[in-house]
Amino acid sequence: MNRKKLTLVGASAAVSLLAASLPVSAGEIDEMRSQLQDLKDKMSQLDKMRDSKRRIAPAATVESGAKARSWKLPGTNTSMQIGGYAKLDLIYDINANKGDDLGRIQTTAPEGSAAGNRQGNFRLHARQSRIFIRTWSPTDWGELATHIEGDFEGSGGNQLISNSNSFRLRHAYGRLGPVLAGQTWTTFAALHALPETLDFGGPAGQIFVRQGQIRYTHSFGGGTLLMLSVENPEVLPIGGGPGSTSVVGTLAVTTIVVPGGAVPVAGPDGLPDFVVRLQHRWSSGMVSLAGLFRQLQVNNGMATHDTTFGWGVRFGFSHRFNDRKTTVGFQAFYGRGIARYTLAGPDAVLNGPAGPAAQLDAVEQAGGMVWIQHHWTETIRSNVAYGRNWVNVVDSMTAGVAGLPGKSGIGAIALFGGPLGQDMWTVHANLIWSPIPQVDIGVEYSFAFAGLINAANGKTHRIQASFKYAF
Questions:
Q1: Which is the most buried residue in 17, 303, 318, 344, by most CB within 10 A?
Q2: pLDDT digits (tens, 9 = 90+) for 175-213
């Protein structure tokens, strides 16, 4: 017993003795006992303060955010979410090595070629792993949202010593109310009508590009939205030469050199691409319709100068049946000069010799896909998808097939480093097990066919397994 408590005990005893031996009134005794109780209370408070200083302060409470799996930043009304996943892919190409992405099937090596004869290739990589940060804040102008995301599918990495891969930007945009500005999926895409595949590229016959844009969205209510956007045209001029192909566009805008000499090409970006999209969402599905208009231009700064226009329409549909156990999806597109959006080119061909008579013509293109997903159990599901892309290059050339390099004896057309495809299709079939919601373990078979114009057709059989861990 410490000194303070001994003092209190002594004081209590003294009060009792006084009450017994002295002629003190009852009121005075009650007052003394009240003062003694006050002293005891103060001593108890001092003991509690001393004990609280010895304890570790409790952790600050994390406040849930306005969105699922988000939390409030301390001292603000901003909700934040950090997420992504780590993914390992095991890929074996039964035919020639197709690389990490089966979707760009134009690079499929022709049968009988040196590359096509090098069959059988196995590799493991984690390039698809990604991370994102999202925020949401209420304002007087509507919700302020931001999204920054990247993965390791960029160029410049290697699998030789450190197995490093370059980080690349996927999304970086802000949205205040109905206006979005930044880089994200093109408004022309139909993400809701894409199947789930282990292959990162997915099926042929899809609209697939992320780019800078300004987008306005108007809601009619009831799940119906109208979107209008101006987007990056992404024309990159690369000069051509005799017997070569000049590429106007990072992915697909191509002008074919005609017999008769060099055609130096430069295509400045005169206009952005314009996209309009109408969509309606209901509890078990979604339907969307989109249109695209863009300018294609050839200009070498001298006599060779011509402009044409590209356009496209796209329809997408997806719906869940049987208490959400089965989902089907479909999308189709048609247009001219839209190869940059479909990853299958070219967008345009240059007809006629270099000079004022040169004429740039947009290439006709059509494609689409159909797929089905079925949940066998709560944790096991399958996906089957078929996609096709048709590019009518021959009819876009005034000389037809005879004007194609490789058919007229002046060399092959180089596009993505390989021959030019006209009819391309893919099949994907997989089985995915999710022991817990954050983990997907799957196996997939895929087949790609490339009908090449100026070379033997190409085929790819692939077996792939994946381990994906989300957070």
A1: 344
A2: 999 999 999 999 999 999 999 999 998 999 999 899 999
